Amino acid sequence: MIRFENLTLGYGSRTLIDSLTASVSQGELTALVGRNGTGKSTLLRAIAGLEQTLGGEIFIGERPLADLTAAERASTIAFVTTEKVRIANLRSRDVVALGRAPYTNWIGQMQKQDEEIVMQSIAAVGMSDYADKTMDRMSDGECQRIMIARALAQQTPIILLDEPTAFLDMPNRYELCTLLRRLAREENKCILFSTHELDIALELCDSIALIAPPQLHILPTAKMVTSGHIERLFTGGIVNFDPKTRSVSVK
Amino acid sequence: MQKRTTILFVLLALLTLVLFAVDMMVGSVDITAREVWAAISGGACDPIKSKIILDVRLTKAIVAILAGSALAVSGLQMQTLFRNPLAGPYVLGVSSGASLGVALFILGAPLMGWASSSTLSSLGVAGAAWIGSAAVLALVAAVSRRIKDIMVILILGMMIGSAVSAVVQILQYLSHEEALKSFVVWTMGSLGDVTSSQLWLVGSAIIAGLIIAVAAIKPMNLLLLGEAYARTMGLNIRRTRSLILLSTTLLAGTVTAFCGPVGFIGLAIPHLARIIFRNVDHRTLLPAAALTGAISLLLCDIISKLLTLPVNTITALLGIPIVVWVVIRNKNIV
């Protein structure tokens, strides 16, 4: 579980999220939505320990994030960034194997158990046939799945993903989010991902975290739809949100 | 895959041995393989030839192996650290720092009216180069502790290098012919300037650098995915950077100090190793680069002796095609 207490995020004098107190539940898939530049990536990076906070505290379970050592953080939180990883001569199973880094010795030697976890993780994202292929010859969707398999191999209770559905076509977006939901529920993981796909988020996610600067609201999906927060997100723009049909249309 | 790697390592090790032997046979005096063996094993051998082999060629061949692996490994480290296929041991200003040290020593000292004669030992030149490169790297390292973005550090390294080169040019412009010539000769590189008494110093510095490089294998593998990923997998990025900078100072700094700025080995050889081994895992790639580097510099030394040309010209002529090929073909090679 991730819990925020009076969390304030931003850059210098610019505050993105102000005094946030909320939590993201275990065993659920939560979508993080919000307009461009409202701090979705910053929030994810802060939880991953890659970004300084301006104030307040992030708790992982009962412990403050700041108290976790680098090794503890690595075995608690996995992060899939937007960065495209395309390395010639690096097989996808080797990429996934890097996810075992927090558990291997000084030179990264893989034990039999590590190898098994790697293959299970690749199987979980449906990429077993691609284990020996190199990533420079794979599509965006396939690469994204491998990067998720790497996060799974890290065996963390929390997985963060920054816009995993960007660059994917429609069927792939749905498949990926279904996969994430299954992982969250079956393996009791806390999965938080940022996205611009409001329709997919409303259809497949258990909860929605919505950034309405400088606030962030986290509600179960059904409550979020009727809360009025989504409509307000589009105020002043050229689109409308209809809570009855859960769809967006041009005014 | 594993089998192919093993075979390649055995082949390259054999090639190293062969070239090591050939390197001792070739030179201004031709010596047969049997005589080389006799001299080394203490058998019956012409005392003059024995002296040439033991005092000159053996040292030089060992220096070629040490320098070749040192430059290749530090080039590999820089390419991984900066995630840039065109990074090399000299991107952070190691060679320009060394040039400044040597320029101040050879060119600056006479300008200041200090004694300038052949009595200034080669250790003085090497020491000046070492201090120069260590100073530039320390500056880059100090700056890098405060800066998060690795690209900014790369640009700073290059800018410091350019600034230092400008200072060196001023010194060259003001200097007399004789001092200028000995400086230019240093910039051409030579594997033969290391005396057998200095060899232990060069050897231990390079071996220390290689040990640190081995300790950084796992961090470098994590860095393949970029710093953000590496950090979320538990990597201490500052510590890793310091380790790699220290290793590079010991490796490239030492080679540059004693052999001059030997170009293109550090830039081209890691790519050659990647191509030969079809692998980017540093557990394979690091020894592969070290071995390929040793072979390449031995080969360059043999060719330079056959043509009696400075070794730097040979490393450039052999290295440039590889780099050009990498640039043309490159799609995210690191």
Keywords:
A: 251 residues; alpha/beta; 6-stranded mixed β-sheet; 4-stranded antiparallel β-sheet; B: mainly alpha; ABC transporter involved in vitamin B12 uptake, BtuC; 14 helices
Describe it for me?
The complex is a heterodimer of chains A (251) and B (334). Chain A has 251 residues and is α/β, with parallel strands linked by helices. In chain A, 33% of the residues lie in helices and 27% in strands. Chain A has a domain at 1-76 and 187-251: Rossmann fold (3-Layer(aba) Sandwich), CATH 3.40.50.300. In chain A, the strands form three sheets. In chain A, strands 6-7-8-3-9-10 form a six-stranded mixed beta sheet, sandwiched between helices. Chain A has a four-stranded antiparallel beta sheet with strand order 2-1-4-5, with helices on one face. In chain A, strand 4 (55-60) and strand 5 (63-64) form a beta hairpin. The longest helix of chain A has 17 residues, at 170-186. Chain A starts with a strand and ends with a strand. With 334 residues, chain B is an all-alpha fold. Chain B has a single domain, classed as ABC transporter involved in vitamin B12 uptake, BtuC (Orthogonal Bundle), CATH 1.10.3470.10. The chains are: A alpha/beta (251), B mainly alpha (334). Chains A and B meet through helix 2, strand 6 and helix 3 of A and helix 9 and helix 10 of B.
